[in-house]
Amino acid sequence: MPELKNGYLLHEIAGIPYLLPYGQNIADFRRSIRLNESGVLLYHALEQGANEKTLLEALVSHYQAKDSDIPALKEDISHFLLQLEAANILSPAADTTAQAADYYFQIGPVIIAYHGPGKLLLPSFRDFSCEHSAPDLTVHIVPSSPEAHVNGDILVRTDEMTICKNEDSYLFLYPPEYGISEMHVTMDGRHAALFCPKPHASGLSEQIFHALRFAFLICAQRKGLFALHSASILYRNKAWLFSGPSGAGKSTHTALWNRRYQTSYLNGDLNLLGYEAGKPIVYGIPWCGTSGCYTTSTVPLGGITFLKQAPTDALLPLNAQEIALRTIQRLVSPAWTADMLLTNLSFVEKLSVSVPFFHLQCTKEDSAAAVIKQAVDCFV
To answer: Which residue of 52, 66, 90, 264 has the smallest Cβ count within 10 Å?
Structure first.
């Protein structure tokens, strides 16, 4: 059950009860809230530590309500609590993360517990729904701005966001026009809170979806899972990844395979890699760029090809140094600190001797797919 925060005073002005902000809440431009009779009753009950059950009992007793009135009273309580949360008057109780989540998802080996409105989840995320299970990552959607805090050291700054690190969390700070103001992710990647003071903002579902990718990748990295910027196909029951800088032709090349060899698409932009029983694995994830291509399946990794556009098709050799450098450059797993980079490098070194790597200078013609297929067929 949420708990009341400091920073608001219940006081009557000309006989009308108001919740009035003070201190930092004034600096944060928090507004006053006018309460009706029920609101005053509920607020006083919250001050005494009431939960939703005792709040309902208080209203039933006060109004001598009948059984037929209870659904409406429950709705009133829910609306009142949401109003207080949006105004930053309520904070989650200490045991909130132990409560049953609204939704559960499994992406690869990672179980995610989601506390928040279902309407803010994109369909692609819902495709990974699973049964109630002990989560690796717990996500909370908070319909308010966070309290004042120290941001810490800046790790990364882009036009879209700033990533900071304080004593116990990574902080993601977003532009004022975003529906999300901040996201806080604990250092161990087990908990994420997304502060959404504009819960009805246009595009909020998309913003939450993309923000959750960062929280997921922090958690995944801790579990030995790493994401490679690449497009992938299923060929002979294995995943074959094609990677390269923007414009290298990943989508074009996988389309050639699909048309010429009837291979299935796995993901059009991002692939999650890990190991099971000592074998490299590709896990389906919902994040797939603008391609719209993703899968929920788990498939053994066949190999990785680095693409570069050229006037002719040619397969070029790669030495160990080139494999490591090209792979680490294409990983999108967090590398915001030296320790994170070392973790990524350790994985790359292991992967580099687990599967074949290719370097294909290629055209946009069918011949490009034929050249790399001939090489791939030597390993399947």
So the answer is: 66
Query: What band does 91 get if pLDDT is binned at 50, 70 and 90?
Result: low
Q: Which residues, at least 6 apart from 45, have a Cβ–Cβ distance to it below 8 Å?
A: 54, 55, 58
* Mean pLDDT, rounded, for 307-317: 94
User: Are the C-beta atoms of 268 and 292 separated by less than 8 Å?
Assistant: yes
pLDDT for residue 1 is more than 60: no
CA–CA separation, 275 vs 219, rounded Å? Answer: 16
Angstrom distance (rounded) from CA 325 to CA 309:
19
CA neighbours closer than 13 Å in the CB half-sphere of residue 139: 28
Give CA–CA dist 247/250, Å, rounded.
Answer: 8
Largest interatomic CA distance in the chain: 85
Q: Which of 220, 215, 174, 214 is nearest to 198 (CA)?
A: 174
Token reading at 118: 């279902």
103-125 pLDDT, tens per residue?
999 999 999 999 888 889 999 99
